[in-house]
């Protein structure tokens, strides 16, 4: 179970790092252009600051899902970050539903379930405090 939790947290961290870096470093005009084809159409209606802020949060989530446990510094932050990721995915699902992008709602639901697994496992049976 511990290995499965590490793998899921690592995959979520990689996904979060990629998505966050894209939002932070790719110009908003380019995101708007790409988004029309790939489910990111919501960026057209959001400010550049908001998109970059979300990207920053996703980069922090990538760090929070792995580094606290790997460095053994406040490992309780791993499940806390997973709960925060769940909240972020709820927002993403609402946003995609507003734009009738239902396949992305389903994809965000998968990410939410993965984060819920990490939160459950790290708060419960495979916590770092035991």
User: Could you tell me the mean pLDDT?
Assistant: 92
Query: Can you count the beta strands?
Result: 0
Name the helicity range. Answer: over 70%
Radius of gyration: 15 Å
Principal-axes geometry comes out as: globular
Query: What low-confidence regions span 5 or more consecutive residues with pLDDT below 50?
Result: none
Structural category: mainly alpha
First-residue to last-residue Cα separation? 14 Å
What is the helix tally?
5
Helix-strand string? HHHHH
Biggest pleated sheet: none
Q: How much strand content do the residues show?
A: under 5%
List the helices and strands and how they pair.
Elements: H1 2-25, H2 28-38, H3 48-71, H4 77-98, H5 102-123
Helix pairs in contact: 1-3, 1-5, 3-4, 4-5
Overall description:
- The chain has 130 residues and is an all-alpha fold.
- Helices cover 79% and strands 0% of the residues.
- It contains 5 helices and no strands.
- It starts with a helix and ends in a 7-residue tail after the last helix.
- 29% of the residues are buried.
- The mean pLDDT is 92.
Put the structure in a nutshell.
This protein has 130 residues and is mainly alpha-helical. The chain is 79% helix and 0% strand. It is built from 5 helices and no strands.
């Amino acid at each position: 179970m511990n290995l499965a939790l590490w793998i899921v947290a690592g995959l979520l961290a990689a996904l979060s790092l990629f998505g966050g870096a894209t939002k932070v470093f790719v110009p908003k005009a380019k995101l708007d252009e790409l988004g029309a084809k790939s489910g990111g159409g919501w960026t057209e209606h959001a400010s550049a600051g908001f998109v970059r802020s979300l990207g920053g949060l996703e980069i922090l989530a990538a760090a929070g899902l792995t580094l606290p446990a790997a460095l053994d510094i406040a490992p309780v932050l791993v499940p806390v970050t997973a709960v925060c990721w769940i909240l972020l995915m709820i927002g993403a699902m609402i946003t995609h539903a507003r734009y009738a992008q239902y396949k992305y709602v389903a994809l965000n639901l998968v990410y939410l379930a993965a984060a819920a697994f990490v939160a459950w496992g790290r708060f419960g049976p495979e916590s770092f405090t035991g």
